[in-house]
Amino acid sequence: MKKLEKPATVLRAPRSTKAVSHRLSRLRAPGATTRASRPGKGQAGEIGSNIVLDCGWGRLLFASTFADDEVLLEALKEEAPDSRDIAFYVAEPHVLLSRAPQEIFLDPSHTFRLDLSTYRAGGRRPRGITLRRLASETDAAGINAVYAACGMVQVREDFFTGERDNRPVTYFVAQDDATGEIVGTVTGIDHQRLFDDPERGASLWCLAVHPQARQPGIGEGLVRILAEHFHARGLAYLDLSVLHDNDKAIRLYEKLGFRRVPLFAVKRKNAINEKFFAQPVEGYEELNPYARLIVDEALRRGIHVEVTDAAGGFFRLIHGGRTIHCRESLSDLTSSVAMSICDDKAVTRRFAETAGLNVPEQLSADAPDSDKRAFLEKHGKLVVKPARGEQGRGISVGISSMEALQAAIRQARQVCDRVLLEACFEGEDLRLVVIDYKLVAAAMRRPPRVVGDGQTPIRKLIEQQSRRRAAATGGESRIPVDAETRRCLAEQDLDLDSVLQEGREITVRKAANLHTGGTIHDVTAQVHPDLVDAACRAARAIRIPVVGIDFMIRDPARPDYVFIEANERPGLANHEPQPTAARFIELLFPGSREVTAS
Asked: What stretch of H or E contains 446?
C-alpha cells in the first residue's frame, strides 16, 4: 500500500490561528474518539460503546467505540455467511492485524473526508433524474438491482422493511424520470444519532450508479444531496472509504472537496474479499470482465487458476485431478463441431429449424438482384449480417430500400465474404443463457440511445454515452459512429450535427449488441416457458453445453419468437444477478462449493 499523503488542508496558509488549530486537531486523529471520553447514550437507549450497525449487506463496526481490540476481533468473527463486515475508523491497524493475521486483513482503501462547515452546495442536478429518499418496497428492489449490476453484495430481502425508519441511516435513490427505474443510490449514516458522536460526524456508503444509466452526473448528484442533507442537520464532516485504485471515484470526491485522512478499514478474510488479500493470479488484471468473473468464481471455490493468455481471455482451471482450458465461457467441454455450427449463422439456422424452432426466412446476398428485390418487397424490412462474425460487427437492421440493401451488404462483407439477408421481425432482442441444457439467465438487449439536452449535438451525445458504456463494461461496450449509425439517424430525419430538444430520447443504432453500445436488462423471472423450452431444444440440437440463444420477441412473457443465432461464448458477466458463473463452474467441476477462511 502506498504511503498516505498528508491532507492538503494542512498545507494551506491559515486565515486565523484558531481556525487552523481546530482543523489540524480534527485531521490528526479524525473520528478516533478517545476511549476515555466514550459517547453516552446510543441507538435504542444503549450505551454508545462497541457500536455495530447492520447494513443488510454486512455490518459496520465503528472501531473507535471499542475499548478493547479483542472485543472488536470477537465482533468481527460473528460475520454472517455471504456478508461483508467492515471495521471502520481503525486508528492503529498494525496492532489489530498482529492479533489475528490469519483472519483479518487491511482493506486497500483510502478514507476521504468532506468538511461540511466549509461545503457549499452547487453543481447542476442530472437532467431526467429525480434524487429523493427511499420510499417504498419497489425502491428497495431497485437498490438491490443497482447493487447487482455493479457487482456489489446485495441487501437481504427483509432488511429495508425493518430499517426504513432507522433514524441514523438515510437512503437516497436516483430515479429515471422516463422509465421510473432506480438507477443510482447512496447510503448515509449519522454518527451523532447512532452513538452520540461528540465530533458530529457522518459517513457515506454504497454509492452506486447502474452501469447502463444514460444520464451523466448521477453519482455526483447523489453525493451532493447527501452532503447537503447532513449539512442541514448541522453535522461537521462526511467520511467515505474508496479503493485506492478507483481513480474515477477519487477524482469525483476530490472535485467535490474531499481530502484524504489517515484512517483505515479492516475486514475478515472470506470468499467475498479474497481478491484483496490472497496471492494474486499472474495475469489476472489483464483479463477482460467476462474471463475475470469466471476466475473469481473459481477462486472462491478453491480451484487453481492459471492465466494462459490474458489478452485473449484464456485460462486453465485445475481441481481434483481435473484440468479444463477455457476462453471466457468457452471451454474444453464444447466440441469443435458445436463451435463450427454456431460460427456459421446459416448452419445454425438449419439446426434450429430441424429442432422445430421458428426461424426467419433467409436469402444469400449472392442471389441475383431480382431475387433480392423480390425478397425485400415480400418482407418490407430486412436484416443484413455476415455469415460469420461476432459482437454485432457488420449487422444492419431494418433495411427497407435496395440502395440501403446494397450499402449494408458492402458493409457486412468487410467482416465476412458470405452475407445473409433475413426477414426482419419487429420486436426486441432476447438473450437466453443455457448451461447444461437448463436456462440460467434471460435478458432483453436494447439498442443504444441518447437523451438530448437542447444544447449538445448528437455526435457529442454519442461520444459521452460511449465513454460511459466503456467505463461501465471495462471497455467492452462502445457506440461506433459509422454508416449504420448515420443510416439510423437519417431515418429519424436527423444527422450527427443535429441538436435534440431537452428530454428527447432517440435510438442511434438498431442492433442491440452489447459491444456496439447496447444495454441489457434481466427478465429471467418473466420469460415465457415456451421460450425457455425453445432455447434448450436449440442447445440440445447443437449439442453445446454452454450457449447464448438469441430470439427476437415482442414480449418476454409471450410465447411468440423468431430464432436469430446461437453464441458459443456468451458473456456471463452481462447477466448479474443471475448465477451464471456459479452454474458454469458447477458444470466444469460438479460438486464444487465455495470455500471460506476459518
From this structure: strand 438-446
C-alpha cell at position 221? 448528484
Give the orientation angle of helix 529-542 with respect to helix 336-343, to 10 degrees: 120
Phi/psi at 190 (5° precision): -90, 105
41-95 pLDDT, tens digit per residue, is 333 334 468 999 999 999 999 999 998 999 999 999 999 888 899 999 998 999 9
Q: What residues form DSSP beta bridges with 451?
A: 505
Is 0.85 surpassed by the pTM of this model? no
Which one-letter amino acid corresponds to residue 346?
A: A
Given pLDDT bands bounded at 50, 70 and 90, which one contains residue 38? very low
Q: How many helices (H) and strands (E) does the chain have?
A: 18, 27
How far apart are the C-alpha atoms of 58 and 35, rounded to whole Å? Answer: 25
* DSSP secondary structure, 129-184, as one string: EEEEE--SHHHHHHHHHHHHHTTPPPPPTTHHHHHTT-TTEEEEEEEETTT--EEE
d(CA 561, CA 531) in angstroms, rounded, equals: 7
Cβ contact 294:580 at 8 Å: no
**232-255: pLDDT as tens digits:** 999 999 999 999 989 889 999 999
Residue 286 CB: number of other CB atoms within 10 A?
13
* Backbone phi, psi, residue 182, to 5°: -80, 120
Task: For residue 407, give every residue at least 6 positions away whose Cβ sits within 8 Å of its Cβ, in sequence order, or none.
Answer: 483, 487
Tell the residue number behind the cell numbers 451525445, with chain if given.
Answer: 461
Amino acid at 486: R
Which residue is associated with the grid cell 447492520? 54
- Establish how many alpha carbons lie within 13 A of residue 479's alpha carbon, considering only the half-sphere containing its beta carbon: 30
Question: What is the structure's pLDDT at 162?
Answer: 63
Contact 443, 522 (CB under 8 A): yes
Cα separation, 160 vs 494, in Å, equals 45
Backbone dihedral region of 148: left (phi > 0), alpha (psi from -120 to 50 degrees) or beta?
alpha
Sign, CA torsion 352/354/357/359: positive
Size (the chain), residues: 598
Q: Which of 310, 305, 409 is nearest to 363 (CA)?
A: 409
Distance CA 471, CA 263 (A): 29
Taking the C-alpha atoms of residue 351 and residue 357, their distance in angstroms, rounded to an integer, is 9
